[in-house]
Structures are given as C-alpha cells and as structure tokens.
Design the sequence.
C-alpha cells in the first residue's frame, strides 16, 4: 500500500501547487517515499501513519505522468489481489474445508487492509463458499462476516443521507447476508443487531430486514404440528422408528424391531446382508385384524415414500379392501369393555333451527382398514414375508388369511378397488419418477415388478 | 414527421432541463427500482425469442370451436339468470344463511381436473416436474412429480425448485370473472394425504388496483405422511399477506368476499419426488374461533 500513500502525498502537493503541470519535475519524488521531500507536511496523518481521507486534491496531474518502473510492479501486485475475491478461500480450502479455515480466511482479509477495500465482493464470495465449508447454519460465522464491514463509515449523518439510500451497495450486501440467514432458518441474535447498528445505523435497510426476521421467525417457529427433529438419527433402525411413530397416527402404537441389520458370511465366503425390519401396530389395528374375515385376502402394498426433512424413507402397508356396503355389520359396543365411562352415548340432543351440523357433504372415502406398517432395508418379498411372520405372533388370523403382495415402483395411491386384486397390476402410464433418482439416505430399494402370489400357509414359519 | 423531429431536438434553457429530466434513465433511480408497468406482456423466459407478431395475427380462428363456445356461454348465461330466482348463489335463502360447511372443490371425475392448472419451475428453465391425475377410485386427485433445486443458468435466477397446483379463475357467462364469497365462513378445511413434505396454501383474492395483482395470502400445510388421511383446518385469520413471494410489512386480514383462486405450492429446497393427494377442499364456520387476525397491523417506522 505504499503506492497509495505516495499518491496521497502527491495530492497534498497538488493542492499547494495549483498549476497542474505534468509531474515530470516531481518524478524524483515518486522514487523516495520516505525521504523528507517536503519541509512541512501538508497532508494530515493520523496515529497509524496513514493519510486521512481527503478528496479535494485532484489526482489528474498524478495520473498524467508515466509511472516509473518500480511503481508498475507495485501496481501489478495490487492488481493480482484485486482479481478474484474467493482467492483467499481457495487458498485456505487446500488444507481442509472447516469452520476454522473459513474463520482464518475472514481474519486474513480483515487484517490485510484496515479500510477493507473490496469487502462487498469478499462478503458475496464468502456467502457463496459457506455451503462448501459447511458453516451455513452457524450464526457466529455470519456475525463475523458482518464484522468485516468497516464500522461507522456507512452510518448516515443527516436527513439527506438517510433519505437517499446511503451506500446502497453495502446495504444490499448486508441484506443479502441476512437473506441467506433467512433461507437457512437461522435466527439472528443481539450481536447481529449491534453490528448492524454500528455499521449502518438504525434506519437502514439491513436493520429493517433484521426487524422483519425478528418479527416473523418466532411466529413461524412452532407452527408445524408434526415437527421433525433437526438432527435425524443416522442409524436406519432409529430412523425407521421415528418414521413409523410419525405415520402411525396413534399414541398407543407399538414399534417392534423384527430384525436388526447384519452381514453374515457363509461357509462359501458369500456375504449375505440381512436388512432391518421395523414394524408398528396399534391396539386398534390389532382389533381390526382380529375381526377380519379369513376368507378375504390381505394385501401388502408398497413402497410408499415418507420424507423426514431431507431424507426419504419407504414404508409398506398391510391392509385389506373395504367390505361392500351390504356386508358391513355394526357390532354394538360391549358395555363391559369400559367400566369407568360409557363407550356409546345416545343423547337426545336437539339441534337449533338451521344448525346443520359439522358434517361436510362429501361421501366418506372408505379405503379399507390398515392393519400394520413397516419399514425395511430391502423391499423384496422375502423380507416382507419375514415381517408377516413376525406379525403373526400377535395376530393369529394371519396364518389363515391369504396374503397378496403388491409391490410396485412409482408414486401410488394407497388403495385400489377390490376388482383389481386378481388381475396383474397395470404399470402406470405416465410415470416420471424413476426409482434411481430418489435422493436422501433412504432404504436401498430393489425395483420389484408386479408380483402376485398366494401364500396361504404362514404357520410354517419362514424365518431363516 | 418534421414535427416529431422538432420535438426531439433538445431545447436550450430552462425548458431544456425539464425535457432532460423527463427522459431520465429508469435504472438510475435509487435502489435500481423497477419502473416497468405491471400490465405489460407476460413473463418471457431469458433466452426465448421475442414474440413480435402483430396482435391481429395472434388470434386463432376455428368455426367448430366457436359454435361450441357459444353454446357453452348460453348455458352459463341461463344458469346465471335462473339461479337468483331460487336464492343467493342458487340456494334457498335460509340454506345460504345458515350454511356451516360447504365443499368448494372435490375430485369426482376428469372434468374436475380441468379446473386446476399445474406448473413447476420448468417454465423458467428449471428441471422440476409436476403432474396431476385422478386417484385410482376417481375420488381424489394426486399431484406428483419431482423437484430439482438447481437454478437455471440464465444469470439472473438465484433460487429454484418449486411446483404449484393452482385452481383456474372461475368464469361465468362470456368469460367474465366470478369470485367465491366465503364471508359466512371462517375456516378452510382440507382432507389431504401427503408424504411428509411441507406445502404452502395460497389464496388469491380479487383486488382493485393493478399493483395488488400478485397479492397472495398464504399459510403452511404440514403433511404428516403415512397411509391415513389428514384433516387440516386452517382459520382464515392465520393467512398472512405476501406479494410475489415476499412477506409484506403492512399486514391485513384476508377479505373473504371475493376469493379468486386457491393454490398449493411446494418449495422446500429438497431434491426428490413428491406426492400429494387431495380428497376435498371445503370451508366451514367454526363458532369457537373468534380471532380476527393473527398478526399485528402495520406500524410505520417501528423503533429499533
């Protein structure tokens, strides 16, 4: 930065000598930057030995002289550092892309220049690089980035400056920083507010953006009635447990692990990987299955997707077709089932005139009962057979009921009319979802085409 | 010709300054404000060639379609004229006044799918897909597809990866707009079955000023996932105002007297397939809900 200093000194000279002749006679001055050329310093220096800002000297005559060779070299050095703003990050990224490296890059930039030249480009580059370094959810890093702005320079000092969008580029840069925080759902804290006030003042765009974040984020933080934890378990069994408790829709539902994942090496040296099988069944579902007519088949359908934040897991469903309307029997409640309160009340409540009740004028979709759900590592028939046999321990009727497997790739609705159960299932006409494209650490699925099989005898026990 | 030439010559003096002011470059306004009027041509994707056909060339003439159109409009006109004889909105007065639940959209046949339009970020050059079809029993609709959050490389789009299902504007006879009147209700009731992804419900009311064209009231629809249907009840007081995707400072409760469209949109920045099944959409009156608006009204220049 020596060149900058000497240019400012020349400007100081220029203000003394208003005749703007080419600086050829002052060329010797350029060579010695520290020599006592002037008897009286005309440029005010502050305690750091740098020239204070002063815009009144015209640099026209300084430019008109051809710069000497050593000045050219200095310019080249400076030009290199101006070239790309993420050069600092690339240098640091050679070691390891961690938060410490990112902090080091920011520190290198702040220490390099007290005036933080090019800080706007630097901050934009940093915002882009954050995802690579894995710090996009870290509030401390955002505060450190906000600290890069020089303080008190951009604060408007009178009403005209406040009116006319003082330092619009810097304000826009800070707003983009806060917008990235908003996109990742990070709530700013009081440090952010203090930094913004110090940098831009109180009536600035970044401050307004901060106020909006602080207004709306608390309102929407707990608006999800089915919240998903931010840190999902990495173990597939735990993930399956979380997913199944979520879709069970019943607090009494019990999750059972029928098989843990393990790799077995047989005598021939082959590796057999057995997937995990986790299932859930609630007491209501057990009851429904007990009441199920053994002559009607039950279906194992799947796989259906379930998204937990950014991870997709697949679940399979054991269900039956709905009874045709003629065969539906409403069994009366057994009063001895619950001795503390009645399960059925027949009160003669009269409705007010025009009180039409809560019912919507839609036909009730009867899709048939769902008996159990499961999630497994491999969606093939052998694994699901294992699940059925595991279920059989609690539901004896499964031994007598024919089980049909409807495993299909692609987005599916969860039920189909009873007439289709014995025909081969037609492939979906427009199926843009290709199984290979699924994202996330979901189960490793096998593409199983249509399989229809009847396995009446489960009591033999298919466990291996 | 000569007159225009005279007009374009800059005149010296005070008037000259005024003329120069009139031709101020819009990009020089502070903050880079967008001065194009809202009533201009629809969005043109960057890279697409401009449609320079004269307006009379853009109309397509088809006789059979014209006759069918006239027949359809006459039927609609007849319905519009005869319905008020029965009562408001075609229902007897007492029933209309005392109504507590009303089913607004249900999916009982392929003609119901004509009322909806599906779009995704494919229009701006993204790679998401979205399709709509009827559920297997012809009782529900299924919106499915896959999202891709990679932004299109056109130099100006920064975020991408969304899809929308929006109901079409309801038209009465001769292609005039009609609006839904939900003043006697206060809750939106949906029956959906999602896959765990968070959706957003957007209601677009009819506005007077053209600047309010993209004013949309939205709220979140969090799906649980799983084989069971989910009943979602959202009171209208919870809907917050946004314009072109940006939530506004000046919040106001949703006016229910002229609702145009409802929309469902998904943009959760996660790549992958999605599906949403909707059984029906209705409105109901919850007597226990007395809140007028869930958010505070605007305070100009709030203190820090």
Sequence:
């Amino acid at each position: 930065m020596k060149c900058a200093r000497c240019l400012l000194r020349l400007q100081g000279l220029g203000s003394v000598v208003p005749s703007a002749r080419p600086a050829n006679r002052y060329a010797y001055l350029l060579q010695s930057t520290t020599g006592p050329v002037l008897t009286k310093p005309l440029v005010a220096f502050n305690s750091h030995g740098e020239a204070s800002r002063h815009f009144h000297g015209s640099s026209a005559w300084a430019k008109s002289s051809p710069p000497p060779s050593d000045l050219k070299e200095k310019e080249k050095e400076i030009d290199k550092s101006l070239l790309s703003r993420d050069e600092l990050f690339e240098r640091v990224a050679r070691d390891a892309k961690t938060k410490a490296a990112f902090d080091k890059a920011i520190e290198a930039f702040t220490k390099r220049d007290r005036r933080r030249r090019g800080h706007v480009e630097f901050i934009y580059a940093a915002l882009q690089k954050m995802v690579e370094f894995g710090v996009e959810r870290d509030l401390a890093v955002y505060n450190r980035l906000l600290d890069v702005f020089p303080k008190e320079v951009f604060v408007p000092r009178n009403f005209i400056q406040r009116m006319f969008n003082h330092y619009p580029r810097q304000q826009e840069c800070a707003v983009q920083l806060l917008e990235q925080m908003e996109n990742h759902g990070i709530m700013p804290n009081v440090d952010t507010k203090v930094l913004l006030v110090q940098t831009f003042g109180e009536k600035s765009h970044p401050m307004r953006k901060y106020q909006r974040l602080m207004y709306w984020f608390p309102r929407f933080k707990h608006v999800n009635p089915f919240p998903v934890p931010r840190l999902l378990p990495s173990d597939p069994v735990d993930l399956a447990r979380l997913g199944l408790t979520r879709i069970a829709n019943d607090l009494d539902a019990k999750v059972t692990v029928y098989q843990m994942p393990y790799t077995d090496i047989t005598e021939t040296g082959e590796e057999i990987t057995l997937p995990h099988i986790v299932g859930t069944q609630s007491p209501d579902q057990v009851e429904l299955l007990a009441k199920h007519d053994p002559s009607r088949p039950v279906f194992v359908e799947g796989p259906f997707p379930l998204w937990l934040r950014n991870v997709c897991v697949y679940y399979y469903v054991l269900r039956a077709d709905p009874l045709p309307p003629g065969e539906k029997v409403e069994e009366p409640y057994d009063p001895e089932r619950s001795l503390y309160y009645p399960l059925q009340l027949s009160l003669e409540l009269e409705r007010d005139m025009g009180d039409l009740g809560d019912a919507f004028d839609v036909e009730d979709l009867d899709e048939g009962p769902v008996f159990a759900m499961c999630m497994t590592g491999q969606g093939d028939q052998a694994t699901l057979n294992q699940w059925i046999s595991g279920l059989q321990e609690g539901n004896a009727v499964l031994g007598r009921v024919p089980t049909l497997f409807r495993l299909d790739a692609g987005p599916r609705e969860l039920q189909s009319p009873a007439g289709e159960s014995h025909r081969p299932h037609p492939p979906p006409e427009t199926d843009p979802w290709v199984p290979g494209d699924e994202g996330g650490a979901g189960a490793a699925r096998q593409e199983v085409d249509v399989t229809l099989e009847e396995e009446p005898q489960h009591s033999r026990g298919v466990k291996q | 010709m000569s007159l225009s030439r005279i007009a374009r010559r800059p005149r010296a003096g005070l008037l000259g300054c005024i003329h120069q002011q009139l031709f101020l470059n819009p990009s020089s306004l502070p903050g880079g404000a967008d001065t194009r009027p809202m009533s201009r041509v629809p969005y043109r994707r960057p890279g697409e060639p401009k449609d320079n056909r004269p307006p009379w060339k853009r109309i397509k003439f088809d006789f059979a379609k014209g006759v069918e159109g006239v027949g359809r409009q006459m039927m609609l006109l007849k319905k519009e004229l005869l319905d008020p004889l029965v009562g408001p909105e075609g229902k007897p007065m007492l029933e209309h006044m005392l109504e507590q639940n009303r089913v607004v959209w249900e999916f009982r046949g392929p003609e119901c799918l004509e009322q909806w339009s599906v779009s995704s970020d494919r229009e701006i050059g993204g790679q998401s897909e979205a399709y709509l079809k009827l559920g297997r029993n012809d009782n529900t609709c299924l919106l499915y597809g896959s999202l891709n959050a990679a932004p299109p490389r056109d130099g100006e789009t920064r975020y991408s990866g969304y899809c929308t299902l929006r109901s079409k504007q309801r038209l009465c006879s001769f292609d005039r707009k009609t609006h839904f009147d939900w003043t006697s209700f206060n809750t939106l009731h949906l029956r959906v079955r999602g896959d765990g992804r968070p959706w957003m419900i957007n209601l677009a009311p009819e506005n007077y000023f053209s600047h309010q064209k993209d004013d949309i009231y939205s709220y979140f629809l969090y799906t649980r996932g799983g084989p069971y249907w989910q009943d979602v009840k959202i009171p209208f007081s919870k809907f917050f105002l946004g314009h072109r995707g940006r939530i506004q400072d000046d919040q106001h409760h949703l006016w229910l007297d002229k609702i145009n469209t409802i929309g469902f949109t998904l943009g959760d920045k996660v790549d992958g397939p999605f599906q949403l099944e909707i059984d029906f959409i209705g409105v109901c009156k919850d007597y226990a809900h007395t809140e007028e608006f869930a958010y505070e009204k605007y305070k100009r220049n709030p203190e820090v």
